[in-house]
Amino acid sequence: MPYITVDLLRKRAEHNEGCLRDLKEITLHQQDLEAITVINDECKELEILYLQNNLIGKIENLFHMKHLWYLNMAINNIKVIENLEGLESLKKLDLTLNFICDLTSIQNLQANQNLRQLHLTGNNCRDIEGYRYYVIDTLPQLETLDSEDVGKSERIRARQEAIPVRIEVDRQRKAVEEEEERKRIEKELGIEKERPKDEKGETLYGHNPEDRLAAYHDMQEQINKDKNKEPSRFDKIKEDMKVKTPSQEEEMAKYGRYMQRNQAGLKYELNEVGPNVVLVVSVPKFISTALIECDVQPTVIRVTIKGKVLQLTLPQEVSPDNSKVTRGQVDGRLRVEMPMANFDLKAEERQRIRNEIIKEAKEAKEPALKERTTTKSKPFNNSQW
To answer: How many Cβ atoms are within 10 Å of 1's Cβ, its own excluded?
Structure first.
């Protein structure tokens, strides 16, 4: 999926019921995106945007996002810091592990007066001598650079070293421009260098944006070939031997009831708590929430975790529309609260009073029983005979 689409945005905005107009936060990481599109017009109220671990080569189409204060574009193919002047509220910018070589491009962030945190770890520009002094002197509004606080003494030193550092940065900029011009001319002339191969004949890719993008395209091409390839006889036998999980409709048609399933072998607790039926599943905390699906029906709940199904019949009929699903931030546990459809508050109150009466009756019997067991019987006197 090389581009952002409205369907993708709605899918990733499930926490906001798929509504994009007032969406505040969205995560689009690991989507193989090559460019930023659509989001600028569809999500103007966005405050937090995660775009890390994609293939984006240029920062663009974000100028309408006046409320955006955190932008994460780590692990992409960014070469130049640009087109962020319109982000008036930007406070935190993460560009970790990109390919930024031209350090002078940070001058484009001078208009972002609210910027307080900047992360450039893993970029080639950090190897330039005096890199930190140059950034601090160019962006005096920064409080943190690469997770390290900027102190007063460091600001003074940055001003003192400004001239020699700028000379070195300018020299590096010219070298970068020459390299980019050389690549552009080679592309115009149709000159393509053959990539080296290892001992097994597999292609070796370099650490640069072009090779990273080429590796992705080659991988996708191979995947498409494998999909279109006619399966062998062994593959067909293997596919037939796979145990397929039937749908709930298929189960009901075949068995007349829903079957209990726990394919992943997870620990869980299913209890009635007040007016709710509560299911707590011990999901490993490192499993992404995006890999978990929860389907609540009136008499059955089906939780799918990484393709493995946990299906349980419910002790009471519930209301699916009013059910609530939450995930523990510390332990990762999944909690599903399902309100009972026909919950009777009076019945619950009667049961509570009944339990109290039984408890009081037991407590009243215990002292009498204790007195009988502790009373000593009179000793037998032989002299009476």
So the answer is: 11
Dist CA 156 CA 162 (whole Å): 10
Spatial CA neighbour of 283 closest among 296, 292, 295: 292
End-to-end CA distance of the chain: 108
Selected residue with higher pLDDT from 182 and 246: 182
* Residue 288 exposed, middle or buried by CB count within 10 Å (0-12, 13-18, 19+): exposed
The whole model's pTM is what? 0.60
- CA 101, 107, 112, 115 dihedral sign is positive
Share of the chain above pLDDT 90, in %: 47
In whole angstroms, what is the distance from residue 312 CA to residue 309 CA?
10
Question: What's the CA gap between 5 and 366, in Å, rounded?
Answer: 72
Which amino acid belongs to residue 102? D
Q: Has residue 384 got a pLDDT over 50? A: no
**3-state class of 92 per DSSP?**
strand
Looking at residue 75, what is its pLDDT? 94
Please name which of 29, 39, 33, 78 lies closest in space to residue 58, comparing C-alpha atoms.
78
- Enumerate domains of the chain plus CATH numbers: 6-181 (3.80.10.10), 248-339 (2.60.40.790)
